[in-house]
Amino acid sequence: MAKGMFVDTSICTGCKACQVACKEWNELPGEPAHFKKKSGVAYPVAVNFTGNSYDNTGALSATDWRHVRFIEQFNESRTEERWFFASDSCKHCTDAGCMNACPTKAIVRTDMGNVVIQDDVCIGCKYCIPSCPYGVISLSEKTGTVHKCTLCNDRIHNGLGTACAKACPTGSISFGEVSELKAKANARLDQLKKLGFTKANIYGYDEAGGLNVFYLFLDSPTVYGQPEKVVVPQKRLPLSSVATIVTAVAIGLAALISFRERGMKKEVEKKANAKSK
Amino acid sequence: MMNFETHVPHWEWYYIAMYFYIGGVSAGAYSVAALAELFGGQKQREVARIGFTIAFWVVLATPVLLIADLGRPERFWHLFIYSKDGVPYINWQSPLSVGSWALLVFGGFSLVSYLDVLVSEGRLKSEPLAKILKLIPRKVYAIVGAAVGFFVAGYTGVILNITARPLWAASDPILGSLFIASGASTGAAAIALVMVRRHIASGAAFERLQYFDRVAMIFELGLIVLMIIVAGRYAAPLLFTGYGFLFWVGTVLLGILAPLQLHRSGRIPGVTVADPVMVSAVLVLAGGALLRICLVQAGQ
């Protein structure tokens, strides 16, 4: 029975309690700063931080397993505005690109459906990083291995919910059985539609084979920084392999034409003639 | 719509892109050698011997580059054996996993072929070894070996294609083919270069090798055009940034068009070329390196 989370962004207040709780429970250190010279600034600047007060880290990483996105938008005349918040994490995809890509079986799925990295198996080849369509996994400079949200693997296997869901003061993040969470999400979607939020939608029912961590958005997923159509990379592997094999055969034929013995051609013709007789 | 939120692996160009390159040269040289032996027989033996020798010495360097880029280099053996139960492991969905095994198999093939070269040239005298080498018919060995070689040359392109990075995903399914064409062309150029150095770069066997290299380069050029069409606007980081300069001038102009011109007429208008055969081989080899560097780095 898959466990997961439902993130109702319509009631998120952007308080970041989830981010703090995640850091606390999983003992994640602060994001290491990368200092570089920037033109016009006399001293080196930590270039991997945004410098914005609401969102300094900007993305998920090996030490930030949760990330609250702040989306502030105005119309042209600035008479209307909207401010969205969305707490993002690993989605624990049913068809997980990272897990498909892993060459060492370091990334595994537990009996509760969550996708977990075994730190003692990972070799740090980094292939899972570009294979995740959501940009969740990152390499830790400290350990030389990759890290991401585990859906609080230790907590959920001991009867607790995830730390972020526990800390969420508005109930925006709820943890539980995926099927039950879906019922809850559908009911909330109906309610919002009746209230006039016509663009409201659930993100994660079909993407990547179904996401165990899914979202309710008030506008299209791209507004919230999530890809509209997700193709799990390995879905393209059969065609890619066939195309490559066809080319290999074509180059092989080029070699046949280049290197073959002229005499051989005559022999083949002779044989063909003999057969026809 | 393509997703822009994906993360980059931060593969170092001097490890991963260079591995993609020298792996391609080694595998390309091997496949060209095997096919020359298969189709050309005795007349192409010299080309085949040089190809097998290059393949063996170059493939020796590949694990060094691959292991050096790992976050935990000492655990490289996890690629072959699942460390939790000690049982051999392969992930058929992951081109990196299958490719690691293929490289291992290819290493074996190139070692045996190199030993065969040494024995047949009389540089290694060992009766038992000669007997073992005779067990497998050369032609059978050449067919399987060429296939393994092409696999090693091509899977690195598939590795890039099977990701969610915009440039790499958008150029799917071309990169595997492109890297095979480039591997074949650079492999043939490496053989030609050795033949020039040994002063045996003449005669029918050499002409056939050069002819094959031209065909491979034309293939490569066609695949580059196809890749740009397939990738569309996602090809922008490859074509218009700093990598664009390296790609257009380094890979396309100097790495493919200039060697084709040199092959055709032995000279480039307005430029004095002392040794066109050697210069074109060097240009092809440099162009192949830049192709891998541009594609790996522009996608990150």
List keywords for this structure.
heterodimer, A: 277 residues, four-stranded mixed beta sheet, 18% strand, B: 300 residues, mainly alpha, flat
Q: Nutshell version of this structure?
A:
The complex is a heterodimer of chains A (277) and B (300). By secondary structure, chain A is of the alpha+beta class.
Walk me through the structure.
The complex is a heterodimer of chains A (277) and B (300). Chain A is 30% helix and 18% strand. Chain A has helices spanning 17-25, 97-101, 128-131, 153-156, 163-167, 178-194, 237-259, 262-276; strands at residues 3-8, 35-36, 45-46, 67-74, 81-88, 107-109, 115-117, 138-139, 146-147, 173-177, 201-203, 213-217. Chain A has a four-stranded mixed sheet. In chain A, a hairpin with a 6-residue loop joins strand 4 and strand 5. The longest helix of chain A has 23 residues, at 237-259. Chain A starts with a strand and ends with a helix. The relative contact order of chain A is 0.18. With 300 residues, chain B is an all-alpha fold. Chain B has twelve helices and no strands. Chain B has helices spanning 13-40, 45-59, 62-68, 95-120, 127-135, 138-161, 166-170, 175-197, 203-231, 236-239, 242-265, 276-298. Chain B is flat and about 60 Å long. The chains are: A alpha+beta (277), B mainly alpha (300). At the A-B interface, helix 2, helix 3, strand 8 and helix 7 of A face helix 1, helix 4, helix 6, helix 8 and helix 9 of B.
